[in-house]
Amino acid sequence: MSVNTSAVAVGRKFGEALKEARLAARRSDGRPVRQLDVAQALKRGTRDRYSRLERGRAFPEPEEWEIIRSVLAMDEATRARLEALMEAGREIADSWWRDFEEEFPESLLQFVAFEDAAERVTTCAVNVLPSLLQTANYARFLTSRVAGSVLTADAVERSVELRRNRRRIFAKPNPPVVEFIFSEAALRQAVGGKDVMLEQLDSLIEDGALRNVSLRVVPFTAVAPSAYMVHLLEFGGDEKPITAFDSMTGMSFQKRPREVRENRYYVEAMRNLALPHLETIAVIKRIKKEMSSA
Predict the structure, then answer these.
(1) What angle, 0 to 180 degrees and rounded to 10, lies between the N-to-C axes of helices 106-117 and 153-166?
(2) Confidence at residue 87, expressed as pLDDT on a 0 to 100 scale
(3) CA distance 4 to 8
């Protein structure tokens, strides 16, 4: 992964390393240094700011870093490692999704960054096609009908633009392996009407021809339906996988090994219910033909 696309992962590494350094440090009374101790040294009334640093949500300013280094009495190896991570993480300023920061929930943009950094993305959907597969018209009609009462026309367009920009991962020099599992209902729901759906089905067929993309439909004849939407994001190196869930106000994440493992079981169950890629493409073509002649 390049530095820019792995900036969020770098932030996580920085936060974990900073926490390790704090837990290894000792106060004058021999007790471990607390987050509150560092926050007070930074002249903060609460530990919120420092807590964000340990969660990888931000990087310290130069003056903050000098104080943190002093309070934690870092050795040179720890200091050098953390500063290298900070330098790499700050390059996130060049990432395209920064243009959307003031308009969308932080958790959604964090998900976008994770998605961009992943080496493998598996999305299990229900009755709506995953965002990465949506055409502009499909996304526009869906968003305007579902959230149009709370979003302006401009906000709807920005939502469409964000979704379409996410598709940049397909054109990366080393694109991730992406697998989509979704219900047959997503192919038959007339989002935006016949013309919009025909365009969408054509787009699915084109996406299905990409070497790194796998489409898997859970047919109506399956013994059980897809139950909920979940994203499984897997990274290279020693980065642990995470799972993410869509919500009306952004995204929620599960990172604990047990939680990720349980969600893997669900993903595998959906794979067992779904048709293979080539059979899915055949289903899409058949539905397109039926829709064209209707």
Answers:
(1) 20
(2) 82
(3) 9
pTM higher than the cut 0.85: no
Residue-wise DSSP of 100-149? GTTTS-HHHHHHHHHHHH-SEEEEE-SSS--GGG--HHHHHHHHHHHHTT
CA distance linking residue 122 with residue 294, whole number of Å:
33
CA-to-CA distance for 51 and 68, rounded, in angstroms?
13
Tell me how far apart the alpha carbons of residues 129 and 122 are, in angstroms, rounded to a whole number: 13
Nearest-CA neighbor of 240 among 223, 264, 214? 264
**Is residue 146 within 8 Å of residue 89, measured between CB atoms?**
no
Left (φ > 0), alpha (ψ -120 to 50) or beta: where does 25 sit? beta
In 3D space, the residue among 84, 55, 79, 51 whose CA is nearest the CA of residue 65 turns out to be 79
pLDDT tens string 97-153 = 878 888 999 899 889 988 988 999 999 999 999 999 999 999 999 999 988 778 899
